[in-house]
Description:
Blueprint: E1 2-8, E2 14-20, H1 24-33, E3 37-43, H2 45-53, H3 63-78, H4 83-93, H5 97-111, H6 116-121, H7 129-141, H8 144-201, H9 207-242, H10 244-254, H11 258-281, H12 286-296, H13 300-314, H14 319-324, H15 331-343, H16 346-402
Antiparallel strand pairs: 1-2, 1-3
Amino acid sequence: MLFNYEAITNTGEKKTGSVDAKSKDLAITAIQNRGYIVSSIKENNAQKKKLNISFFGRKSIPMKDIVIMSRQMSTLFESQVAALKAFNLLAENTQNENLARILDEVAEDIKGGVYISQALAKHKEAFSDFYVNMVKSGEESGKLTQSFSYLADYLDRQYQLTSKTKNALIYPGFVIGVFIIVMTMMFTFIIPKLAIIIKESGMAIPFFTKIIMSVSDLFVKYGIFLLIVIIVLIMYIIHFSRSASGKMYFDRLKITFPIFRNIYTKLYLSRISDNMDTMLSSSIPIVRAIELTSAVVENRIFENILKDIAESVKGGSSLSDAFSKHQEIPSIMAGMIRVGEETGSLGNILKTLGRFYNREVNEAVDTMVSLIEPVMIIMLGLGVGVLLSSILMPIYNIAGGVS
């Protein structure tokens, strides 16, 4: 909850502001930790109403902004800038208003004596559990600068990889969407007019032409109903995709559907390897590293696999044996992890695996993009060709008969 307060400093200066806390007592304690004497405090009802009426909840911060912030934070710490001043500087200079607000609140918490990791943990829309635990590890080991550097490098790699994968899917989606719109307009407006000419000619109508004309009649007579059905279907798919079973279904579809299976599977394997390497480099225990990786892998199939692996490792199983139990994990990955365990270089092996699968994803995306364009041109050309020939050939025959 957000509380507005009025307070007095040790020098008699009046201060006003807001503090985020679970209760009024905790809010008062947080304000007093800043060296203030609380004169009044009350819950921010406007903020409460705003959060209650928001359908989507708090707006998440784009990954790109978090990458830039982490890189800047690492640079400031390397320059021996104090944590409080570093967060204040970033809050003043960031372009994202939501992120600036969050950094201001983090700075206020740090000023009140709260650890950086605890301050960041309050803002789930910006900082994941993985991020918070990396910072916490840096605080405990005295390597906070290095932790932010690791985070910036890791998030940058994941951002570039995820962006490239998503962008590769935008082009075919756009082309298919335009094709559907054009075909709908032709079936609705153009073909009906040409069909009248063909019917009035009294000539025998070819079989494919009859099919095209029937589809056109369907669009003209029942187009509004088809549109309603499509809208309802889309709404159902969106609703289903947000349910637990729907999320599980689509996550499984990503790693089983032939066209996307190769890309998504390697993307998740890259994320797992890179994530675990980053955390082990920051001295986070192996079981905790696996658990945190399961929370950020963003695929429920692999999330469940990692949770099972964590339980197996807790029970005394080696990491390689736990990985090898699951058919979704390639044998080469389990084998290399075994080598890392036997040689004491698990971190280097995971780093190598991360780079390998990262490169594999890039190559798979490039291959798919290079193949999509000619395949789609051929398919769209055949579709348009069949459609036009089915209608224009009878028109041509009519014109020939008239002459």
